[in-house]
Amino acid sequence: MVIDVFELAYIFLATFIVSLISFVGVVTLALNDKILNKILLILIGLSAGALMGGAFLHLLPEAVEKSTGLDVYLFVLIGFILFFLIEKVLHWRHCHKGGCDVHTFHYMNLVGDSIHNFIDGLIMAASFVVSIPLGITTTIAIATHEIPQEIGDFGVLLYGGFSKKRAIMLNFVVALTAVLGGIVGYFVSNLIENIVVFILPFAAGGFIYIAATDLVPEIRKELDMKKYMATLFVFICGILIMWVTKVIFGG
Predict the structure, then answer these.
(1) Residues 6+ apart with CB under 8 A from 211
(2) What is the pLDDT of residues 22-42, one digit of tens each?
(3) Residue 128's closest CA among 9, 247, 250, 1?
(4) Contact by Cβ (8 Å): 50, 147
């Protein structure tokens, strides 16, 4: 295989720029804890909506389009079940550290986001291998739908008990899996269609699990009807944002 240095540089730069979007959480450093606590549930709603929208409007349609005889929905269920097992293991480990009153959804969100970012890197690499203009267009599309999701993911980490600085750094480290996906995608570009067709529905199952079993139940705990309706509205907005990016950029 002949390595095109410029092509690889484009892929690395594009995936790294998309990874930097994870730093949107920096703006919260200017907010005091009282204000931040008031908007955390709103961010949870945004994240849940973005995850559901990403699964049903982006990942699943793309998986169905790319599948050739593959039972896409079986892999969705496999992803759902595997994330259920991962969460159980995380909860078990925390319980054995001295207490069982623990939430693991923030760790689950990190796992799900890692897989999602890796897939984004694969897709961006495949696009740049086809042509530089297509790669740039794909990068813009991915960056657009990453912004609301990263804001929501940051809120999930804060809600789960991480400090602002730790949440920002963890979000960035997880975002860097896009760079890894881009590099891997470049060197296996001839196999990328076969890889993505398996990973897409698997990731969709994970997204649905995190949103439906971890984040939505947190929203449901809100007893104040006005706050509940506001969070539900933001949840719907998260879905709509994903729909708008699909309409504008496709995929």
Answers:
(1) 47, 48, 49, 51, 52, 55
(2) 887 677 666 666 776 777 788
(3) 9
(4) no
Residues near 139 by Cβ (< 8 Å), separated by ≥ 6?
14, 17, 18, 124, 127
Structure tokens at 178: 């896009």
Q: 89: exposed, middle or buried (C-beta count within 10 Å: 0-12, 13-18, 19+)?
A: exposed
pTM above 0.85, yes or no: no
The predicted pLDDT at position 29 comes to 64
Look up residue 108 and give its amino acid.
M
Question: Is 102 in a helix, a strand, or coil?
Answer: coil
Task: Collect all residues with Cβ–Cβ distance below 8 Å to 74 and sequence separation of at least 6.
Answer: none
Burial label, 234 (beta-carbon count in 10 A; 0-12, 13-18, 19+): buried
Rounded Cα gap, residues 21 and 7, in angstroms: 22
* CA–CA distance, 21 with 149 (Å, rounded to integer): 10
Burial class (CB in 10 A: 0-12, 13-18, 19+), 82: middle
